[in-house]
Amino acid sequence: MTHSQAHDVQPPMGMLAELTHRCPLQCPYCSNPVALERRRHELDTATWRRVFAEAAELGVLQVHLSGGEPALRPDLPELVAACVDAGLYSNLITAGVNIDRARLETLAEAGLDHVQLSFQGATPEVTDHVANMTGAHARKRAFAAEVTAVGLPLTLNAVIHRINLHQIDDFVDLAVELGARRLEIAHAQYYGWALVNRAALMPSREQVMEAVERVEAGRERLQGRLVIDAVVPDYHARLPKPCMNGWGRQSLNVTPSGKVLPCHAAETIPHLAFWNVADHALGDIWYDSPAFNAYRGTDWMPEICQSCERKEIDWAGCRCQALMLTGDAAQMDPVCEKSPYHDEVQTLAVRDALGVPDFTYRRFARTTEGA
Amino acid sequence: MTAIQESNIVRLPRGVRLREDKRRGGWVLLAPERVFQLDGIAQAVVGQVDGERSVGTIIDRLCETYQAPRERIAQDVTAMFAGLVEKRVLEVA
């Protein structure tokens, strides 16, 4: 190992590959940045192939092929094959509205390991409204049936918020009905598009408590049949989430144009410069780039975090959220009850939960440049 | 908890793979959006799963390798398999 190891840096386990930011859905909580990257800036097949090979060499075990909608890339089967060639476990994260049976079979034959399919609601009305796409729910159901018919393991992913939070039991039933092995119930996290729409999405504290109970009830009811993983809600909590299990600790994210980020929202921290796979080997970026080293370990933390017994459990929470809510990315996550901003965040959550605005749907900005 | 019988044949379901982790050392079970890092014993047990051997056969084979009472090995193996079935990373054929 020739890289600097000042922080005793471990190799990454997982990589999120955002193949494109183009998407047929317009979910108002999309994790992509508000400034979406355009098609003409997307990495080509050969570059992705190199990135996958470098990732495997670096120690990555699983690649999550994501977007936008990754199936909008015509070379998706080649990219899956490239993961297989590199020995990587490939996971397709899709909206499931534009993959027909023949294409799915091609992906399976290429060696795809797993499919994660998003559902914006548990009923057609909610899915079509949240995704802003008529007929989306029906297409997703049909796609789920094809996935299990082809024999691929299926996970359903449901991002929950004020509009669909009452449907948790229905999501659980839907997952069982569609033959999913696993269900992810993820509370919307307020970055990018979800931040724009926060007042339209934020649940009340009572709703969050109810959601936690419903998830637990579903787990008990379906023990051994369905694995339910939950991403906890944030603003209403007392302790921060261990964001990414620590900055630059386990995973990395490659954007459509090849920028490498410690998490998908990291670009909201304006003073960080992100290296691109076009200019640097992935291993150099992981070990040596200033952005990855900025908040690694615990040395950068404020004193109150450094002396906290949870410093290597919570990793001081989320950097992007600290910046967004306190103006300083090196602050502790203000969700933490030890933060001087904690009460402010709670007040803000209560206020936003009373909001009634319409969604601002996720779209490319209108411009004369074109996509 | 799922009860595992010695007559059961267990296998890794599609989407679950056992492989060596050369970079970190040791072996891992790769599953949908999860990675299980196996210790030496878990690796020896899961490594016996080929979709054809019964649990009883796997226990017998482990008895040949490890000098421990069969009863003890049987207990550990069935408990480990039951846990993996619960997590949906192992299935009874």
TrEMBL record, chain A:
Pfam family, one: Radical_SAM
PANTHER family, per the entry: PQQA PEPTIDE CYCLASE (PTHR11228:SF7), RADICAL SAM DOMAIN PROTEIN (PTHR11228)
Class of enzymatic activity (EC top level): oxidoreductase
Entry function: Catalyzes the cross-linking of a glutamate residue and a tyrosine residue in the PqqA protein as part of the biosynthesis of pyrroloquinoline quinone (PQQ).
SUPFAM superfamilies (UniProt xref): Radical SAM enzymes (SSF102114)
GO molecular function annotations of the record: 4 iron, 4 sulfur cluster binding; cyclase activity; iron ion binding; oxidoreductase activity; S-adenosyl-L-methionine binding
Catalytic activity: [PQQ precursor protein] + S-adenosyl-L-methionine = E-Y cross-linked-[PQQ precursor protein] + 5'-deoxyadenosine + L-methionine + H(+)
Gene field: pqqE
Family: Belongs to the radical SAM superfamily. PqqE family.
Database matches in NCBIfam families: PQQ_syn_pqqE, rSAM_more_4Fe4S
Keyword tags: 4Fe-4S, Iron, Iron-sulfur, Metal-binding, Oxidoreductase, PQQ biosynthesis, S-adenosyl-L-methionine
Subunit structure, interactors included: Interacts with PqqD. The interaction is necessary for activity of PqqE.
UniProt organism field: Chromohalobacter marismortui
Any single GO BP term: molybdopterin cofactor biosynthetic process
Protein name per Swiss-Prot or TrEMBL: PqqA peptide cyclase
Cofactor, how bound (note): Binds 1 [4Fe-4S] cluster. The cluster is coordinated with 3 cysteines and an exchangeable S-adenosyl-L-methionine.
Signal peptide: none
Listed pathway(s): Cofactor biosynthesis; pyrroloquinoline quinone biosynthesis
Record-listed [4Fe-4S] cluster binding positions: C23, C27, C30
Residues in Radical SAM core domain copies: 9-225
From TrEMBL, chain B:
Annotated InterPro entries: PQQD, PqqD_bac, PqqD_sf
Gene Ontology MF term list: quinone binding
Transmembrane segments: none
Pathway membership, UniProt: Cofactor biosynthesis; pyrroloquinoline quinone biosynthesis
Record's keyword annotation contains Nucleotide-binding: no
Keywords: PQQ biosynthesis
Domain of life: Bacteria
Pfam families: PqqD
Biological process annotations from GO: pyrroloquinoline quinone biosynthetic process
Subunit-structure text: Monomer. Interacts with PqqE.
Descriptive protein name: Pyrroloquinoline quinone biosynthesis protein D
